[in-house]
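Long-time lurker, first post.

We've been arguing in lab meeting about whether zinc ion would sit comfortably in this protein at all. Half the group thinks yes, half thinks no, and nobody has a model to point at. So I'm putting the question to the forum: if I give you the sequence and the SMILES, can you give me back a predicted structure of the complex? Inputs are below. Any interpretation is welcome too.
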Amino acid sequence: MISFLSLGLVGIVAIALPITFSTPAVGALQVRVSPTNPKLGDTIAVAIEQQPGTTGSTPTIKLQDKTYPAFEIAPNRFRAMLPTTPLEQPGVRRFQVIAGDQVRNMAVKVGNRSFPIQRINLPPGKSGISATQYELDRVAAFKKLVTPQKYWNGAFARPNKGRISAIYGVRRYYNGKFAKDYYHRGVDYAGGVGSPVVAPASGRVALVGTVSQGFRIHGNIVGIDHGQGVTSAFLHLSRIDVKEGDMVKPGQVIGAVGATGAVTGPHLHWGLYVHGEAVDPVPWREQGFN
Ligand SMILES: [Zn+2]
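Top reply:
Settle the argument with this. Predicted structure of the protein with zinc ion, as C-alpha cells:
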C-alpha cells in the first residue's frame, strides 16, 4: 500500500482553458463538449444533436488515429466519450464529428494538471513480480468491451468505505529515473481486509479472475462492464461474490478488500476505463455523466 506521507506530494493544479467551437451551419449537427475546460485524466463527453427527422447513421468521432462511437441517449441526441490520460501532452485536440455526409470540425483544449510524484528506490537487480500473459490477455479483452447498452445511471458511488490512500494519476520515479509510461491507473481505498467492495454503478460482471488462474499482479479481480465503452476493475480482492454474466446494481457487494496480487498491503484498487484508457474516476463520482 502506498503511504501518502512518503510520496512527496505535489498539489493538483487545474488550469482552466477556454473551449473553441466552430460555427454550425444551419441544419448542421449541434455539438456540445463537456466539461468546457477538461484537464488531463478527464473524460470528455461530446453531445451531438441531429435535426429532427434526420435519418441516417449514428455519429462517430475521429480523433487523431482513433474512431470513437456515439450512442443514442434520446431521440436525435447522441453522446460519445473521449478519454484523456496523464501520459498525453496538454493542448488543443482537433476532432471530427461525422454523421452520414455531415461533418463538423471541432476543437477542445485539454489543460495541464500536476499529478503527485512518488519516488521508489529498488535495490539493484530487483525487478519485482511480472504479470502472466494470461492475466494480461484477459484484462486487455475486458477493457476493449464496448456494449451499446448504457447500464449506469447518474453519479458513481464509492466502492469501499476506506479512506483514499492513493489518488488517480500519481507518477513515479524509480531510482531517480522518471517512469514515462507509468501513472496510477485508478484510486486506492485503504479498507480493511474483508471490508465490502460494492459496485459503484450498474453493469454486467464481465471479468472474474483469481490468483490461482494466474492473476499474479492484479490478484483476485472483478470487472464490471457499465456499457458504452465504460468499464471498472476491482483488484486485490480477498473474496469474490459474483460470477461472470451477473448483472449488478450500485451498492451491491461484489467482493471484499484483500491483499492478493502484487501489493505491499491490503487495499482496493478501482480502475475506471473509457474505451480502454484509465480515466480519473472523480468526475464520475461527483457530477457523473448521464
Ligand atoms: Zn492502485
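For your lab meeting: The pocket of zinc ion is lined by residues 166, 184, 186, 188, 269 (CB under 6 Å). The CA atoms of residues 19 and 141 lie 34 Å apart. Whichever side wins, do check it experimentally.
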